[in-house]
Design goal:
Mean pLDDT is about 75; it is low at about 1-20. The chain is elongated, with a radius of gyration of 19 Å. The protein has helices at about 5-10, 20-35, 50-60, 80-90, 90-95, 110-115, 120-125, 150-160. It is mostly helical. The N and C termini lie far apart (about 40 Å).
């Protein structure tokens, strides 16, 4: 099934959700709080235990579609030239030219780029960073443009193309 477990745990007659087992909720909780190394599933530790329990109970009760497998997202390849243009219009105002020199974190710094993967860069751009000024470019908002995944991959490719990133 898509997120582990037996489909029978999630379905009852006619595809109506059933109540998930406590073991199933515990399994989902561990995966959500700790993330899944080697995948795009990051850690989500900023939610209260009650919020996580409610969310995970809902997820565990969703029907499982036959023939699905564990999700695994691997970033495609972006275009650094298009990424440079998008970065200048969308990111440089906070992060500074080439990702160094603004008020926001130095995402173009070699030390930073050496510690993060492309999935982290792209995922942070799409989801934002709660509790900071970093918006979610994967959602429509009044103050920031909505970027599609290809545009985010372009910006990621641009950051990886910087001379400082290749050291």
């Amino acid at each position: 099934s898509k997120h582990g477990g037996d489909p029978a745990d999630s379905l009852r007659w006619g595809g109506r959700p059933s109540r998930p087992s406590q073991d199933r909720i515990a399994e989902l909780h561990r995966g959500t709080v700790d993330g899944k190394p080697g995948t795009a599933m990051g850690r989500y530790r900023s939610h209260s235990p009650g919020e996580l329990a409610s969310l995970l109970a809902h997820i565990a009760a969703l029907p499982v579609l036959e023939g699905t497998t564990r999700a695994s997202w691997r970033p495609g390849r972006g275009d650094p030239a298009r990424g440079r243009e998008r970065f200048a219009r969308t990111c440089a105002g906070c992060h500074g030219p080439a990702g160094i020199g603004g008020e926001a974190p130095r995402i173009g710094a070699p030390a930073f780029l050496a510690q993060v993967g492309d999935a982290y860069l792209a995922g942070t751009a799409m989801r934002g960073h709660p509790g900071t000024a970093m918006p979610s470019f994967g959602m429509a908002s009044l103050g920031f443009p909505l970027l599609d995944p290809d545009e985010v991959l372009d910006v990621t490719a641009y950051l990886r193309s910087l001379p400082a990133a290749r050291k």
